[in-house]
Amino acid sequence: MVRWLNDRLRRLPVWAVWLGGLIPLALLVWDTFTGGLGIDPVRDIEFRLGRTALYFLIASLGVTPLLRLSRISLMRFRRALGLLCFTYAVLHVLAWLSMDMGFLWAQMAKDIVKRPYLLFGMTAFLLLLPLALSSNNLSLRRMGAQAWRRLHRLVYLAAPLVALHWIWSLKTFPVEPLLWLAVILALLALRLAVPRPLRRGGLRGSGKEMA
Ligand code: HEM
């Protein structure tokens, strides 16, 4: 069964993941131009972009535990999932900068004082930035596998920060983000608890295969 699934997954092109991953963006654009957003359209746009970024972040975190626990391999798609997360995070930040703040520094400083949870989001974004920039084979070759893998562990810091960013932004009891925080912590625990299988022939080639 696992072999059958992995065979099917091997035939799925990475661009199909990109295509699927951009559907939430297409729906958001559609809703923006057809009046499908809520009573506060700017917040709606920010929320949807932020949430989608978080979902892709969690999906990319789930790839290694899934492989180690079930041998189902989504490794070929991990880079796309990570970059999709970053794409939505950039759009989320741009939405805040442009529609909320009008690119005004003074306004931004005031907003950060008023809503300190933004600092969690900013820190998470700064942690994700080097990961996105080094998500290519050239960086992997230049940095070497060990350093590259060490750098990419930053994702385990960024993900809980995003959940805290969401939790702190709410005035009501944060049921949903707490659930996502639990998922993130469970994925982190699994990563630490389930050892990496020994490879025959050492590390080969690209970051796509690195668990
Ligand atoms: C410079 C960095 C960031 C800024 C300025 C920022 C800004 C914001 C703002 C203004 C909100 C709306 C809060 C509200 O009005 O109640 C928000 C919510 C949110 N942000 Fe961020 N954010 C940043 C980084 C991130 C990153 C990197 C992610 C994900 C990878 C993220 C995910 C979320 C989520 C999931 C929400 C909650 C959405 C909801 O309530 O439905 N943010 N952020």
TrEMBL record:
<keyword id="KW-0472">Membrane</keyword>
<feature type="transmembrane region" description="Helical">
    <location>
        <begin position="154"/>
        <end position="171"/>
    </location>
</feature>
<dbReference type="Pfam" id="PF01794">
    <property type="entry name" value="Ferric_reduct"/>
</dbReference>
<feature type="transmembrane region" description="Helical">
    <location>
        <begin position="177"/>
        <end position="194"/>
    </location>
</feature>
<keyword id="KW-1003">Cell membrane</keyword>
<comment type="function">
    <text>Part of the MsrPQ system that repairs oxidized periplasmic proteins containing methionine sulfoxide residues (Met-O), using respiratory chain electrons. Thus protects these proteins from oxidative-stress damage caused by reactive species of oxygen and chlorine generated by the host defense mechanisms. MsrPQ is essential for the maintenance of envelope integrity under bleach stress, rescuing a wide series of structurally unrelated periplasmic proteins from methionine oxidation.</text>
</comment>
<keyword id="KW-1133">Transmembrane helix</keyword>
<keyword id="KW-0349">Heme</keyword>
<keyword id="KW-0408">Iron</keyword>
<feature type="transmembrane region" description="Helical">
    <location>
        <begin position="117"/>
        <end position="133"/>
    </location>
</feature>
<feature type="transmembrane region" description="Helical">
    <location>
        <begin position="12"/>
        <end position="33"/>
    </location>
</feature>
<keyword id="KW-0249">Electron transport</keyword>
<keyword id="KW-0288">FMN</keyword>
<keyword id="KW-0285">Flavoprotein</keyword>
<comment type="similarity">
    <text>Belongs to the MsrQ family.</text>
</comment>
<feature type="transmembrane region" description="Helical">
    <location>
        <begin position="81"/>
        <end position="105"/>
    </location>
</feature>
<feature type="transmembrane region" description="Helical">
    <location>
        <begin position="53"/>
        <end position="69"/>
    </location>
</feature>
<keyword id="KW-0812">Transmembrane</keyword>
<feature type="domain" description="Ferric oxidoreductase">
    <location>
        <begin position="50"/>
        <end position="161"/>
    </location>
</feature>
<dbReference type="InterPro" id="IPR013130">
    <property type="entry name" value="Fe3_Rdtase_TM_dom"/>
</dbReference>
<keyword id="KW-0479">Metal-binding</keyword>
<protein>
    <recommendedName>
        <fullName>Protein-methionine-sulfoxide reductase heme-binding subunit MsrQ</fullName>
    </recommendedName>
</protein>
<comment type="subunit">
    <text>Heterodimer of a catalytic subunit (MsrP) and a heme-binding subunit (MsrQ).</text>
</comment>
<keyword id="KW-0813">Transport</keyword>
<dbReference type="InterPro" id="IPR022837">
    <property type="entry name" value="MsrQ-like"/>
</dbReference>
